[in-house]
Fold each of these.
Amino acid sequence: MTASRLTLRHPSVIPGFGLTLGLTLTWLSLIVLLPLSALFIKTSEISFARFLTIVTSERTLHALQISFGLSLAAAAVNVVFGAIVVWVLVRYDFPLKRVVDALIDIPFALPTAVAGIALTALYAENGWIGSLLAPLGIQVSFTPLGILVALIFIGLPFVVRTVQPVLADLDAELEEAAASLGAVRSQTIWRVIVPSVWPALLTGFALAFARAVGEYGSVIFIAGNLPGISEIAPLLIVIRLEEFRYADATAIAVVMLLASFALLLVINRLQRWSELRGGKAS
Amino acid sequence: MTGTVVTLTEPHPVRGASEGLPSAVAEAPAYTARAPRPVNTEPVAVRVALTAVALAFLGLFIGLPLVVVFVEAFKHGLGAYLDALVDPDALAAIRLTLLVALISVSANLVFGLVASWAIAKFDFAGKTFLITLIDLPFSVSPVVAGLVYVLLFGAQGLFGSWLQDWDIKIIFALPGIVLATIFVTFPFVARELIPLMQEQGTAEEEAAVSLGASGLSTFFRVTLPNVKWALLYGVLLCNARAMGEFGAVSVVSGHIRGLTNTMPLHIEILYNEYQFVASFAVASLLALLALVTLIAKTILEHRLAEEER
């Protein structure tokens, strides 16, 4: 490591810096930065009063509320169950553990539209799960509960894959030391293990939340999409676009984009903190 | 070194696996006793209960949705399943999806290699910020990703009238679908390569160059072999997302049957027309792709871990 550090100070030996950095910046600008700035240019064409009217209209506010509220709830569920899943995967042994571990990534790999129709089929009144819940008076599909289910599905791997390496790297000696100093198991868990994985759990929470806020494909099939009740913000953007109300679509999109930028900053901080903690623990 | 890559992205199992394993092996002799920590585990009942909760949760939220796709697809037998797949609109959707994936994965493959070369092999100001920008598309809602291209190239867009004058169609046509797909899959290859290439440092490349190798042959004969598994891994993930992208493509495609419908959009149309078996039949192809991707990923992780040993 020290050798490469030293040589990094003389980068001129390796050719291609100007070319590769130039290409990178050009391509990045064309594909990502220019299109995203189009959103802000288009927004600047709307008067501020108009912007406020759109963003504070009842339907928009409801859609934002549903997207952000249910995303928070789904991320919270994922933190609780994700933590249990990670604990079991890292600490215990059971048959087919490697297969189960690999399947955690299904929500990354399965297209959202496929997940959407699959969840709808499961939770519809005649579906495998829906038919069990119907006699209890619980309806999942075509209600906000359905949105929650979809958002839990897509967020789970973010929590598991963020926390898993941290718990796996946790030094067993710390726990042994705690135990040999007389700590009961629950004390060891709350005062040694939880503080070490806490930053990773928070990072996973934020990642799952950020993904859920923008999610579209897996939600729209199961949601029912009733304005004010089960209509998410990304769907409202699509609806406004189909009605050729570009100003409305743009204004809502800007709010969503600013929210993702803010979340990105928070997540960057959390990850840095998490890595510092991880560094201390090992 | 990996510490510099702090961004909103899908977490990184490859790095975990490849870093965790060798250190565990290296440290093993340091422990005097090999006994499994007896003081540090829960009673059997707690262990069984926690495992049951975890497996039930995963079965409910991940196992069942996967199984139901195939069950619904074969509900009316193999004949109905195959009929749905050889339907001309379905075939057109499959062809379009393959074409879009081929173009956008190639574009991101080249970009990923170029960007990681610039970022990993050189030191310059603003590097962390550049990595954040590359990761940016991960945190943008797919719908917003589609919308920005409509605002740029649509009839009402910034370049709309100019494109019309020249009779160039981007939105509701192949170029729009490809652009939106490249946007949402933008970081996939680069972010697999950057941390690995940073970790590998520049010593080997410097040796090659000082022995007289050209930049290109250094890249192809030194750098590329060193990152081939991570590259393949990034391409696989990129491809899975490119073939499955729904939100962004849905906004720019215009849903013209047989022309601008990709597989995910075809699934949506069939589903909304209550052709459930046909819809799940097409969906089962994408589910299969997801499973193959995960199997390949598991094998690649193994390779990576073994190679670093």
Amino acid sequence: MDLAVSHEDSQILLKDKNVLQESVVDKYRTAGQITQTALKYLTGLINDLYHYKTIQRPMTIAELCLLTDSFMVTRLEQFYKNKVNERGIAIPTTIDVDQVSSGWSPEVDDTKNLLNWNKETTSPEDSLFSSVSGILKAGDVIKITLGVHIDGYTSEVSHTMVIYPVAVNEAGATVPAGPLLDVKADAIAATHIATETVVALLACALTPEKLPTSLGNVVNGQLIRLVVDTIARSYNCGVVPGSRVRRIRRFLAGQNEGIVAEREYKGVVWTESHQEAQLLINSDVKDLTVATSSTRSAPSAVPVDDFTVNAGEVFMIDLKIAPLGQVSKKGLITLEVVDSARGKSHRKDELVARAGLFVRDYAQAHALKLKTSRKLLTSIDNNGVYPFKLSHLSPNFPIDPTKDYDEQISALDKDLKSFRLGMSEIANNYLCVETPIEIAKWVPWDHVLKESNQNGALSYDATANLTLPGHEVPLPKLGIAALKLKSLVRSCPETIDLPVVRECTTVVLCDSDVSSGERPELLRLTGGSKTSQPSWIHSDYELNNEDPTVQGIFQLAELVKDKRFGLVVRETQPMKQTVSQGAAEETGMQM
Amino acid sequence: MPSKNSINRPKLTTNVRSKQQTLARKRDARERKGHFTLARSEEGSRSGEAKSAPVDLYFGRESPATRRAQPGRGGLTTKTLSKKRAKKIERNLKYAAQRRLLTDVQANSEGADDDEMSVDATGQAKAIARKQDIAAKKASKNSGSLVREALWKAIEDAGSQGLTLQTGNGTTLGGPFFP
Amino acid sequence: MSGVYTCNSCSLGFDSSQDQRDHMKTEWHRYNLKRRVAQLPAISELVFNTKVRALSQAESEDDARKRDEKKQLTKKEIRRREKEALLEKKKKLLALAQENYLKNKALAENQAQKENTEAEKEVKEEQTAPVVTEENVPTEEAAAPAVPDEELTEEQLAERLMNQKLESKVDIPLETCLFCTNESFKDFETNLDHMFKNHGFYIPEQKFLTDKEGLVHYLSEKIGLGNMCIVCNYQGRSLEAVRAHMLAKRHCKIPYESENERLEISEFYDFTASYAGYAENTKKTQEPSEVVADDGNDEWEDVSSDEENAEATEDNDEDEDDLPDEYLYNDGTELHLPTGVKVGHRSLQRYYKQNLKPERILTEGQGTLVAAETRTFLPAFDKQKYNVKQRAWKSENMDKKREDKRHAKFVNNQPYYRDQLLQ
């Protein structure tokens, strides 16, 4: 790595700029408002398309993503213009359907390709077909993820929606035909409750004396993991690897996880190794540490649960939960990276797609040969440090939905062609890393135990997707490396896809000096009751009140409802569509 | 002796090659005779111990190498043990027993807290200790299997299902509207 | 004259052989031998001695000086010097003529151009003569061989030369072609047109030209009076010769490349308009508009080699470099031109030619990522460490070889070895 930042500069960038001040909170709040508005815009579009059916023209996922990205960029234009150097999309809109866990954000020219590539492998009855065709169908669970940043202060959001079959009620309004009763409902319930509980837990970090005694006396990583795992288990669900509750800092909002080994990582992550440790918890195996010290990065970059949540920090709660109602055995929930290559080794039901999101790896340097690539790299470098889509680099972006839509799309198409040519060279030299499309898979434990060999730990997967430092080996106790696990998942006939539900929210822990009121408060930038209301579902499971942890969870919910003595949680509201200059409309909303 | 610049100076390569060939021939011969030592990992290996044909003969032990080379021949050997040699061995054994007795007494008097420093840890004893270590390590290497066993147990254990409860009314979120 | 021993060449007789031998060794005898070979009669010793004395005296006079000059100055060198001196003289004369012409012109303008040309010439003559006397001193040597038989002072000589020139002067009117013999046109413009079309006589920078007739008149005087080529300053013997030279060599243009050439005709131009335009230009656009490309400073290179400069060099004929000097300064390594262009010295050429990667300036986001990065990559190749290692390997190899050698010494150490060559 030929780049270096002086010690003083790094102190400023990592420490001083992350101190919560009025101006910083204001930037966070504005970013949160834009995110909320964009989420509202997209959910409105999807409702209009599939529920109210007021938009006749069918729109694919790619188009929805493009429209929402354009919306975010045009909204961003109105704020902090010429006041900050960098602002933009922190995570391009992704719309993941059912088992697709993350990263589904095709370009507009991908729609035709996807149908062509998956011609033989995917049938219209398949649950993957919604992703492939880009047209949703009733019963689909879709996860919308998007985010913006202003001067590096990032707000991200994920929300899960259900596409319902529609009915008309007595009042003549279009309503869902009924609640979702599927196993997916369990996961939606679990994710919603877990997210709200973790938000309340983080609020308790500001006032530790209010933390229920059954949960201990300090908010730390172990407690967060315990609470989330308990809720997931209560609803017969499992936490999907890649979920995390982590501190975010300026420009370090988890977008580079797996690429940059981030100094002073603070957060709870869920990986396969945690599922393994969970199983071994009652056995006589003593050493249950899941993270190994990574040889290639500093020890502080390895995510471990030994941390305490402090006031003045910003956290991102990103939970992905998969229901286990359709499986009878115990199994491992893992992620499979979707490959863009097609060949004879591909299974019948395997999805073929190429990643739409890329992240620049600034540690790599290489002199590119093609002029197109060099030009593209310059525009990537100017774009910022966050993930981007190729279409964002086009001069025809953002598109204006009020003007001639088809013409803009075709212009964008033309730009994308040359971008892809340049991108292949850039990606081949590791200057950019593509954010993988991941599919949640379930593989029974007995298959893993039967098949594994001893040398698994030594094998190296050149195609390994992004792993956190210290968590390179997915099953360290069994000694199964990523490559081995990949082949296990592929070889097992019992492997099934799991639908995934995802909720993500960004919260700022404001101490009393920056909070709007007297008391310290938790400012919830994204999500909440205005934009991220849960869909209508019914799950057969419920929380067991006898469990002390669950009791603590109930107490937390009470605390949030209590306005006078409880926890103060304020939510950032979406801007009104008509108001262009967003005067911060923000009301104290209680959970 | 030819000088360094002599025309007749023997060439290095040919010499080296002939030397290697000779060594190889000798090694072959030894192997054919069965004098080849066992690998250290093999069961009968007495690596680290003092090698002595007379001692073997005295104790009636057959050398492991001969046993491997000529499996059917039993303890047949061409080695002989002279009477004088036998006497010497006998005498040495006696001294060794005396020494051991002495060190035992010393160890007892010192509280037997430092095994490492015992004089008796001769080459033979050291080798035995090392072998035991290796065996222990081999056992611990199978901790993977220990994990595996624990995992099998956890999978088959129906009781560890957790807190899932299906008796209540269940959970309902949201309502009949599109959020 | 007695004795058996004689010398035939000197016709002498000797008593003893010793005497004869002594005589044979003398210079006189050798001289007479040479004379005899040349079939000349022998000379007596007395005559020989007087001759020798006279010669040695003459030699001792200009011995050292003459020998030195003769040896060091080759004929070619002498000729070259002479030529140079002549050229110098001619140039001076021409400068004088030019000066006088300008003076006269000013005078004539003041006196409303009443006087006729002859009166002008007289004035010129009167003014020229004293100046020439002052300035003709260094041309003495060159002038001397031209009129070796007459004893004239330098003043008189110059006067005579001038007179000769004036006598042979041919007035070329403005309507007549400068190069063709006796080709006249009805007016000045058609003449210029003819010269441009037929001879390529192009007047540069016509935009700023204020005195076209003056320029052409000056040139015609240069040809007619000075018999000089306008391009290469070739001095012809006559007008016909110089015209033939110009036509043959295609020297029918006004040289406008070097500083001196430009200065020579700068009286007829007025560039003040261009300065005003320059000032506006620099105010409006920071783009450098021109680059000096004069041969006097040709060891300067253009430093900021951008595309804009490349463009700028192409259209530099409009703006001139005769800008006030205060904008142009030299800080030792670079020459700062008023346009903002920096010109580097040729000695630093290798550094300007380097195509270094521009230093990357990280944005705050990139800086944050780099600061937060803890990944360790393979260490960069350290040449020093590698050299140390290489030395270690080398010594290892040497040790091994030495061991082998020592070992091989005793490989064939047989008790009864017999060397084959010693049989």
Amino acid sequence: MMPVEVQKMLRLAEQCLERVKSFAGKMLEQPPAMPTQTILSTSSSTTATPHGTSTVSLEPPTRHRRVLSEGGRNASPFLPPEIFQKLQTAESEETKKELTPIEEASRLNQKLKANFEVRLARLPPGQATQKTSLTLSLQRQMMENLIIAKARQDALQRKMEERRLRLQEEANRRFAASGTVTPEEQELRIMYASILEYEQDHDWPKLWKARLKKNPNDISQVSGLVSSLLSHPEHPVVKLLKKLQYRIYDRLYPLVSCCPSHGFPHLSTSLSPYHDHNANREEGPLSGTPTLDTEDSFEDLEQFINLFDMSPRSNPRLEMESYILDLEDCALKEHLSGIVKDIHNAIDQLSSLCLLSFECLNTAVAKDQCVASLEEAFFPPLWSPLLALFRKVHRGRELSFETSVKLFRNATPSELGVASKLFPKETPVHRGYPYESAVVELRLICKELCPQRKLDCIVRTLRLICACAEEYSSLQEPDAPPRTAAIGADDLLPILSYVALHTEQPQLVSECAALEEFIHEGYLIGEEGYCLTSLQSALTYVESLHSGGVLQQQSATFT
Amino acid sequence: MAAAGAGGAGGGGSRSHSFKVVLLGEGCVGKTSLVLRYCENKFNDKHITTLQASFLTKKLNIGGRRVNLAIWDTAGQERFHALGPIYYRDSNGAILVYDITDEDSFQKVKNWVKELKKMLGDNICLCIVGNKIDLEKERNVSVEDAERYAESVRAKHYHTSAKLNKGIEELFLDLCKRMMEFAQDNGTSQAQPSRRGVQIADDEPPAATAAGGGCCSSG
């Protein structure tokens, strides 16, 4: 007969074993590669680590799976923002994270448990006491590991916190003189502190700083630095970039992913008495107020009623529809300008943070280069939804352009007002049509995803036009001095209109409208600005072609 | 301010000016030859960009100040007139050229002056230029009329001949000086266009020079 204590002990050991068994069973169901943080322990000590929260609990963590398609009602060409963000982080997760002490302990414990299972399997059957002692020692070891890990983690965290505070103080000192603190400045301070922290852990920024110090005038070093910076996903500048990109994508997505017709569904369904099937149908447009449950439509409603008061009954249906369309247009335009502003702010924020972390960039030339490199990273994932919004806003203009293209696709240069000496009388078949090289170049604009590159493309197009014009005119007047062949705007614009028409790409209208928003002030009065302005003029002219004289009328009122 | 110190005012040291000048005039008044003359004149090297005569830049040194001139040619044809405003905006100066043998071209100049005033108010230095004075015998626009008109719109009047290379250098030099004075009086030139990337405490000055910038962007 065993003493009571021994019996108790055995029962406890059995219970422990049961737990381990059930636990081991659950472990097997999961894919083997998955790291589990599950540990034999009742203390659910939740510890915030710098990388997130690692929960220590008895149950295996339930991995909730994100539902990727949300409803799937409209097939949209754009990815939902969640996926956009996932793609962003997927790119950056290639780098290995360092394990926190608790994570390390959990790995260690897994190994211990594996060993334990092996030993348990080797035990000859019937050796219950052996089993119990093994189980108990496993429990003890695992527990110890955890406690030590927790202590280490706490110490580390305390240290990190101290360091963070110290760096924050340092950051604050740097900004100290600037008096009142706006929220943006506050954010910048925090960012700066995180940069200091990053730089204590990484050496590459120091190397670059030294390199730039050595060659302060080498601009290629600047782009080298920025691209190296962008390749480090843990750097605060890159984190900020991703965050801002996501924020803008998130704003763009609902605007461009829905079907193109109506932006105000509640207006078109419940406000218009002709479409309203549930209420107020017989009462006519002037009487009762249709019930509205959307809060922001109240103002719209007021305006809507005012509209009817002002213009009673002159085909109310048409007016209403055009009114609704106007409202949509306005709303879209407002969204667009808001987003444009957000993008400018985002780039401002990024470049200031860049300049903060690399003071060596603080010369006019280096700064420009830095902003250019940042934009090159910032814009590409956003350009197509952004352009989609611009295209929505400029839909009318694009339609005009399209109509003109249909009507004047085969127009000769002279029909568009190009001087006869500036295009060949007969083009040999194998050489294509006049100014073809410029047309080909201009079409490439849609392939670029960054404003600066698009501008470069426009500049190249105009240069090609000038080169072609020179060639054509020298063919016709071989004796004329080259200088007289130089063409001015009088010749350039008709040719450019001809070229733009032949690209047959209405989206040029929206591309240019977008470029106008994102061209740098510094370039505005330079060659890029001139070329963009000229192209915009040419496009407007092409748009007006099909109506045969909108421009003439306008200029008539102007004279 | 430490933050702005990091953002820094670019350029530093000697301030330089950048001016935008639009060139207006009917098709055959000779505005292209005028700027070509000017830009090939002083130095031997060509200042003609690869955009030939439509967009030209010139660097000058006036009173120890560096001046970058960007000269924007515009199309004179009637059908492109409606598109003018996007060329004018942010201009510091305008050169309006007419042919002294062509009364009609002078009337056109008057239209452009109206248009410019409407858009930019008095924030632009206007030059009215009677070109082709080598054809004095065929003059159709009287000197008095032209000068009186110029004075009435606070523009300066010049006579030039692109053919004989007369009066052109003076015209541009004078215009540059006027633009510099104007910039100093108003404290706002495009001398140092404040880049968006820089966060300077005193933000954009409520200057009128950039008035055209925002308001007609969506059009």
